[in-house]
From TrEMBL:
A Pfam family per the record: NIPSNAP
NIPSNAP domain sequence ranges: 11-104
InterPro entries recorded: Dimeric_a/b-barrel (IPR011008), NIPSNAP (IPR012577)
UniProt protein name: NIPSNAP family protein
Domain of life: Bacteria
Organism from which the protein derives: Amycolatopsis nalaikhensis
Bias (Polar residues): 155-164
Length: 176
């Protein structure tokens, strides 16, 4: 599978969780939600803890096109796995609507450079290995809101910067 094709449409999802429940959500997410979403046509690049925010879960979901996004989200959110576990997942969350719908400026999530550490910044970074910008397309799956207060540029790098946040990959994160 060519994972770079899944960088065409990217969701950067930041969930604010109830105090102390991040590991509970991550455990549920990694056990129940990764494979069904990928089987539906999404690609989960990264699942992260944010050390500066102990009640936040940040994750990246990619699609090959907006049409593929609609199909994958429709299949997953109407499917048996989401129906079975949605209440447990939602019980951990305060807010799941901090979502940026992005398109690539510089691809690189599928094949980051060697090294360790992942940092995300809401601005261009000279050391970035992947850069995305707000996709101006209308949200074609309105059941899941996306932010419209942009435009934003999102950079991923191995190096920290004054404006970046460190991301710590979970056990199932592909981006490390």
């Amino acid at each position: 599978m060519d994972f770079s094709s899944f960088e065409t449409v990217l969701e950067l999802r930041r969930y604010q969780l109830r105090p102390g429940r991040r590991d509970e959500l991550i455990s549920l997410f990694e056990r129940e939600f990764v494979e069904p979403q990928e089987e539906a046509g999404a690609h989960l690049f990264g699942l992260f803890r944010v050390p500066s925010s102990p009640d936040e879960f940040l994750w990246l979901r990619g699609f090959s096109s907006l049409a593929a996004r609609f199909d994958a989200l429709s299949a997953f959110y109407s499917g048996p796995v989401w129906r079975r576990f949605r209440e447990a997942a939602n019980a951990t969350m305060v807010d799941s609507d901090n979502v940026l719908l992005l398109r690539p400026v510089v691809r690189g999530l599928a094949s980051p450079p060697p090294g360790s550490g992942v940092h995300v910044s809401l601005e261009a970074s000279p050391s970035a290995f992947a850069v995305f910008e707000t996709d101006p397309s209308p949200n074609n799956f309105p059941q899941l809101p996306v932010r419209t207060d942009g435009p934003f540029t999102v950079s991923f790098s191995r190096e920290p910067s004054a404006s970046s946040e460190e991301l710590v990959p979970t056990a199932r994160s592909l981006l490390r």
